[in-house]
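We were asked to recover a plausible sequence for a given structure. The inputs and outputs are reproduced exactly as logged, with field labels preserved.

PROBLEM: sequence recovery
POSITIONS: 86
GIVEN STRUCTURE:
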C-alpha cells in the first residue's frame, strides 16, 4: 500500500500536512524533495493537453492564490499555534 501526504522540510525535520491514517508506527518512508516552483508534469504522466486543461480549470483561483493575504498560509501551522496560545 502506498500513501502520499504532503509535508515541508524545516529545521532538519519533515512536518506532515496531516496525520496519516492506518499507518503503523515505525513504517518505512521515502521522501522526495521538490524544487520550489518546478514540477515535472511529464514525469507524473501529465501531457501538455492535460496540463493546459488543468491550468484552465484552476485559472479562476489565481487572483486569490496570489493575493498578499494568502501569505498567511505560507507558514499556516506556526500561525495556527500562535492563535491557539492566545
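RECOVERED SEQUENCE:
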Amino acid at each position: 500500500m502506498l500513501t502520499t501526504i504532503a509535508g515541508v522540510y524545516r529545521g532538519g525535520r519533515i512536518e506532515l500536512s496531516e496525520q496519516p491514517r492506518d499507518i503503523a508506527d515505525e513504517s518505512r518512508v521515502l521522501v522526495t524533495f521538490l524544487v520550489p516552483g518546478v514540477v515535472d508534469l511529464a514525469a507524473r504522466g501529465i501531457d501538455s493537453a492535460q496540463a493546459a486543461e488543468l491550468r484552465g480549470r484552476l485559472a479562476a483561483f489565481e487572483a486569490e492564490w496570489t493575493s498578499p493575504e494568502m501569505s498567511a498560509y505560507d507558514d499556516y501551522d506556526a500561525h495556527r499555534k500562535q492563535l491557539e496560545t492566545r
